Structure formats: structure tokens, C-alpha cells
UniProtKB/TrEMBL annotation:
The lineage of its organism: Eukaryota, Metazoa, Chordata, Craniata, Vertebrata. Gene3D superfamilies: 2.160.20.70. One of its GO terms (cellular component) is spindle pole centrosome. This is TBCC domain-containing protein 1. The keyword Cytoplasm applies.
Amino acid sequence: MEAPVRLWVKTEPFLVGALPAPPPARLSPHYLRKMAAYARARAAEGCFPRLSWPRWRHIACGKLQLGRGLAWLYFELFHSLLRPDPPRRLEWAEAEAACAGPDELEQERSKAGAPSRAGQRGESLAHPNTSFSPDTLQFLLFLYVQQVNKVSLRRSLIGEEWPSPRTKSPSLTGKSTSENKNWNDQDHHAFVQSHLSDMLELLLEPEQLTASSHSTHSSLVSYGAVSALSFLIEGTVNKSRTVHPLHELALWQPCHGQNGYSKVSRAFSFPKLESWLRSCLTTNPFGMTACLKSGKKLAWAQQVEGTTRRAKIACNTRVVPEVFPMVIMSHVYKQTLAKSSDTLVGAHVRIHRCNESFIYLLSPLRSVTIEKCRNSTFVLGPVQASVHVHSCDNIKVIVVCHRLCLSSTSGCTFYTLTPTQPLILLGNEAISFAPFHTHYPMLEDHMAQVGLATLPNYWDSPMLVCKESGDTSVFRLLPPSDFYTFVIPFEMEGDTTETPGGLPHVYQKALSQREQKVQIWQKTVKETGLTKDQRKRFQMLVENKFYEWLVQTGNRQQLDSLVPPAVGSKQAAG
């Protein structure tokens, strides 16, 4: 008989929540079980049912031997999954920007990460600061999910996986690979199926566990534990388009016989619940596989003659309020693509194998992944969660984003405004960081929509998450002498007329000095007293040199592609 519900693994905890790097050894399931027992035993100290920042800092640094920076990274990364409303994010940004130093910042984090008394009792939380105090069981699942990027020694030895500096990124075929597991919903499904018993045991109350922290045939899973599992799993009643969290579906009367729910104990039989979950779990209808297989094809890109692969852009055909949309583009080659579209608003965007192109996505976005791209420039609207750049060469990324993650990149430059430290993971070389240096008319409106402010701004303070011999030479700050502003060449409605937050003094000074030199040059030419014929020949000489420069720098291609056949420069508004 067909199961009355369909369940699937949610995309967000893996795509946005899993750090795209092997987790620290102390975040293994063994230590997470010890953490679960420790937290439950210290409920009165701010460990359970919600976990305060000071208690997590103590557990992470004192018990799991993580650095304080990494401890805060995981704590804040989990928070970014909870979809805090933009005004609250702006309040936190203002509070953090007002801190005079590290000690004051730590005090503010402790205050923001301290649950109220209502939170300690498990009641609803109304105070703005309590949003930074996560549900302990959900946070444990979040830490467990970091194992998705653990390198398997066995698989390494048989050739499926190896931690080389330039690991391959996944294809756009939708086939399961061992490469980028953050995007691949087939990997998410396989991970949950493989580790379901472990994750359920992590959520059990101490009296339901054996001395070795394992379940028995008579173990009961509390309703609170199943509610926590809704962090990872959601679904629908068959033939319905409404998406429900797992705990709501688990309480549906027709499912009780299969999942072992008892109204008397308000709990589920462990073996029956596990069996029910396994039988109902199916492919995510909103994931990458479905998007590639049956998504709507978008005719945003030109098909360039002489290329071996056709440009492909697809988005979800099924869009529901509970799930962020998805846009996937690949093989955009030698062209300018510019869009500000409702299709992009709040979307997870994946840009794959795009070469020698200029791509403008001028809408507020949820997350962006740029993979295996070469010699291209990406100008993005504000990104609410993260921008992950992987296995790219010689690209420029211009973006206001909550977080920037880099892995296996070479010769890339990032012009960013970000309230968190850029994360440098494995395999990077010759990275340049520079301040965000452009604007478009709707930029500040889009920033407000996703809760991003101009301060704090940590564009120049990257964090080496995976220290490769502690080598800080993998990055540099772009010298002011190499810094130029960037003009977005499209007309749009809106009020933003300058770079939000302005430029750091040394970069503004370099621009002013360069502008002054141009003015001196213009004055010198004007005062030379050239005849009309000399001025004409001189102008031709300058124009020829300028044309040579356009060709040599690739800017000629960008200018030509701004006006493709039958499409005006207002394509950005389409």
C-alpha cells in the first residue's frame, strides 16, 4: 500500500548549513553523543532545551577543542539557517558595529546568545535576542550534518574521493557524485538514510539509551525530538501541494500505526518511527535533480556559435512559499548576461562552467555557488546567506553578502561588503580581496530586503578555516594602485546613486589622485596650442591606443556584448 505521506530531505541544511570542508575530528558522532548527554544534564545552566552562546563556547573550546573563532562560526552559521526577519538582522548588525573592541563584541554575543526564561522552559521566544539561542537538538543535528563533507579514507583508496587542492566539482547532469555534496539532493537523501539511526539516537532522552548511548527495541522518541528532526525533513500528504514539517505529518492519525505514535506517552516507538521514515523518504521535488530533470528552461543566454556545449539555464517549475526557489545555469560563454527578475528573488543560484563572460544577477538572492568558471566577472545582488566559490580561475566577484566561502580558487578577486569574515577553505592560491565598489539603483532596497547593512564590514579580515601550514600568503588585499570603480551599465528604477557605505580612505585617495592626473593631462593637452590638424591626428592616436587597450584587456568583448542582436541594454530589467 502506498504511504499516505511523502517525505524528503530539505536542501537548506546542506546547501547553506554544511560548511564545504571536512569537519574537525571532534565533531564526530561519538563526541556529539557526549555533547548531547552533557547538555541535557546542564539544562539549568543554559544548555537545554536551548543552547546559549557562552555554554556552546565552553563546550566547543573546552570539550571539543575547537578555536573560539570556529565555535562562533558554527553558532552563527546555524543562525543564518533560521530565516531571521531582515529588521532583526539589521538590529544585530547595528549592535555589533557599535562594539568598540573584541571584549565588547564578546559581551554583545553573550547577551544575544542567552535564552530567556521562557526559552529555557521551551516556550515561544519573543525577545529579539533569543533568536541567537538555538534549539539544542536542532543544533546537534546541524553539527552532525557537517559529516556530509567528511573525506572517507576507504573511498579515497579506491579512487572515488581524494582531498587534492583542485577537487572536481559536480556535473550538471544531476548524477550523484562524491564531489559537491552541498548541492546534490541525492547525496543528502543517501546521507540521511545512512545515518538515520545515529541521528535519532542523538535526540533520545538519557533513560531511553543503553550505557553505550544506543537505542533498544523499546526506546521511545519524544515528540520534541521529532520536532527537532523537522530541521532536516519535510513532506506532503500524497497528492497535496502543501508542504508540512515532519512533526506535523508524524502526528497525522493515518500514520500512527506505521510510526508507532502513542497518544498516552506522546512519543513514538524508535524502531517503528525509523522504519516509517525510511519507507516514506523520497527524492526532494524541489532539489537540484528535479530542477535539472523537469525544471523550466529559461532563454536568458545566447547560444554562441563554435561552442561545443549549449548554454543551459533552468529554474524550479514548482514553487511554494515554504521552499526557496532554485536557478541553475551552465556553459554561458563569451557573452554578457544581465537579469533582475522575480525568478531570482530569494533563489539559490548555481553558476557552473561559465567562461569569458560578464554575468549580472541584480536581484536579492538567498545563496550563490560559482563552480568551475574561468575568466569571468560576476556582479550579484545582495545575498542573504552565502556565496561559495569553488574551483574557479581568474574570476571577479562583486557582491554584498552575508558570508563568502572560497575553496580551490586561483587568481580570483573579490570585491565584497560582508558582516562576517570571508572563509578561506582548502586549495586556494593568489586570492585578492577588495572593498565593494559599485552600485545600481535598487541596491539599498535589495539590501534591506535581505537584512544586510553597510556595517560591520569584514571584507579585509578573512579567516583561514583549513589552515594549510598556517600560510596567510594565499591571499592579499588589493593594492590601491590596482583599484578602479566598477560601473553597472544598465538603467533601472531606484534611489541608490553611490556605493553603500563609501570606500575605505586609502582606496578613495587612490581614485582621487588618479582623477587628478586625468584633469592635469586634459589641462596640459588644452594648453599645448595644437593646430586643428594636429588635434585631429592626436585624437586618432589616442583612440587607436584606447582600442588596443580594449582588445588586450578583454573589455572590447564586454562592450560588444552589452548590445546583442535585437536586445537593448535594458535587458537587465527583463
